[in-house]
From TrEMBL, chain A:
Gene3D superfamilies: P-loop containing nucleotide triphosphate hydrolases (3.40.50.300). It comes from the Bacteria. This is Heme ABC exporter ATP-binding protein CcmA. The gene is ccmA. The keyword Transport applies. Residues 3-213 form the ABC transporter domain. The lineage of its organism: Bacteria, Pseudomonadati, Pseudomonadota, Alphaproteobacteria, Hyphomicrobiales.
TrEMBL record, chain B:
InterPro entries: Cyt_c_biogenesis_CcmB, Cyt_c_CcmB_bac. Signal peptide: none annotated. It is a multi-pass membrane protein. GO terms for cellular component: plasma membrane. It comes from the Bacteria. One of its GO terms (biological process) is cytochrome complex assembly. The gene is ccmB. Required for the export of heme to the periplasm for the biogenesis of c-type cytochromes. This is Heme exporter protein B.
UniProtKB/TrEMBL annotation, chain C:
GO terms for cellular component: plasma membrane. The gene is ccmC. The chain crosses the membrane at residues 26-47, 67-88, 100-119, 131-150, 162-185, 205-226. Pfam families: Cytochrom_C_asm. The keyword Transit peptide does not apply. One of its GO terms (biological process) is cytochrome complex assembly. Residues 23-188 form the Cytochrome c assembly protein domain. Coiled coil: none annotated. Required for the export of heme to the periplasm for the biogenesis of c-type cytochromes. This is Heme exporter protein C. It is a multi-pass membrane protein. One of its GO terms (molecular function) is heme transmembrane transporter activity.
Amino acid sequence: MRLMVEALSARRGEDLIFRDISFTLDGGQSMVLTGRNGSGKSTLLRAVSGLLRPESGRVIWHSEGTDADIRAAEACHYLGHRNAMKAELSVSENLGFWKSFIGDFPGGHGVSVGEAAEAVGLGDIAHLPFGYLSAGQQRRMAFAKLLVAWKPVWILDEPTAALDVSAESVFTALIKTHLSQGGIVLAATHQPLGLENARELKMTGFAGGTESMW
Amino acid sequence: MIALLLRDLKLSVRAGGGALIGVLFFTTVVAVIPFGVGPDLNLLSRIGPAIVWIGALLSALLGLDRMFQTDREDGSLDLILMQEHPLALTVLVKCLAHWLGNGLPLVIASPLLGLFMNMDEVAIGATMLTLLVGTPALTFIGAVGAAVAVALPRGGLLVSILVLPLAIPVLIFGVSASYAAVQDPAPFMPPFLILVAITMFFAVLGPLGAALALRNAGD
Amino acid sequence: MPQIAVLTKLTDLANPTRFLGLASRILPWMAGITAILFAIGLYLSFAGEGDYQQGMTVRIMYVHVPAAWLSMMCYSVMAASAIGTLVWRHPLADVSHKAAAPLGAAFTLIALATGSLWGKPMWGTWWVWDARLTSVFVLFLMYLGLIALNRAMDDPGKAARVSSVLILVGFVNIPIIKFSVEWWNTLHQPASVIRMGGSTIDSTFLWPLLMMAIAFTMLFFTLHIAAMRNEIWRRRVSAQRRMAARMAGQKTDNTVEKGA
């Protein structure tokens, strides 16, 4: 199981945000992106997730039992700044939808909606509409989304922003469990996630002297 | 896919009642026409099918720009784009859900408005039938506009401007078929079948174009 | 640890600089040829006799028909550029269809206005819902919509890609719109208006018309290349401005860090 990023460059607007980033993550490995705001952490995560077409380079996924030319995004969960949950639907409806829409990647199975809500410590309020939850609870439920469908790679953009310490420790425990099951985690963060063996990629962002395409 | 259809249907029922707003707008547009042209029942029954069709067209455009915008605002669109059930198919399902939530209520409300316009039973039936066949085409072609709206800082009105010219054929054949059912010399089937063909054509072109726009509007 | 490589020279897929060089070399020639063609075309247009039925108003045709032809050709150029944008991501293609849209709108407007002027003596009214006029009018609306769309977006790259999709969807739709408008027209106006073209055009009209059509086409390409050049310059200026802002921002950031 291996996620390979080869010589990735990406633009935002007309500016080249980063260029020629390469790294490889095997099962059980994690990497943390650090850097100040606007340094290109989110852009890199979106490029790896296939949401932003890179200027050059590519992202390759390799694992047993999948096609060689599968889109790497298929193997990824993406947790962005926004929770991707509907305020009008109940938490279990939200999670149930993502469970069936995203589906399991070969090689693993997601847990049930109830178990996922339990895992983030909010098992007893899964029947409530998502909009009634506090910001911290909403973020936890967004995290539970990663558990309902199995994807080997978790791409997390500031997963613990605006969370209290106890919720952070829950997240860290879940991430560690995922890594111990052979998963891969790629996260951008300001706060340390408490992962001992994580590699660190320091994003410097716009380094001056970017050439415009014109 | 079914999960997506059910979710979007649930949302259209629960969230703010988009369907209700559409039907209300439809009713209001049709209801102000007599104030413009006068309460002459003969005139109203003559222009009735056209008015009902134009009202339905405008109402169908009303909720279109929200089709992908709500998903973008809460981040769902990112996750939808990452899954490779072919994106065009995902868009098609979203179109169907959108039509069931917003288009079908218009079709159901149209006979009542036909009565307001003093149309006879055949005309009402024909208008309802053509709306049933034609409004999906409006949703499909509107999906392209809705996908474009995702990239716009402020969508809304511009989407209607972009979509309306493309919707002209639907309007022409929808109204032609409605009239052909009432007026004797003109046959009903040719314009009606062309309308069906246009709907089927847009059912392919719309989702493909919308998928292409969504892929390219990402950042 | 992987590092962000030092920014090296980006090998350009497209080369706007080369385009600018080429443009500045051929533009004077194209402008000259256009002027000569117009001189010949206009001379022929006014030297020829008027039509025995339409009188002098037939000369409007020499502007109207080429403008109408260009209104369609311009959209085809835009559709081809849109494919270039979406398939090859060629920045010149972005510039090409963005620059072509106002030109297309202008030629379409000329076609509509001259058609209207021609219609007044011919049909006794400024506007008829004739199939051709109507479909050209719809085309005009589509051009305006595309221009508005381009202006509504801040990021020129994204604007180019999104409007490309719309250009192509519109391109596929144009035949359908044309067909439906003709159907609609025959339905509502059994007594068809007098139509030029299709029927036999006398050679006294044909030559001036052909000349004017070529002149207008040359005019379009001259303007198109000039507009593309302007657009590239505009983007260069805005890129440099952004750069200047960025540099200034970094300078202040550094001093703040040192101060702290």
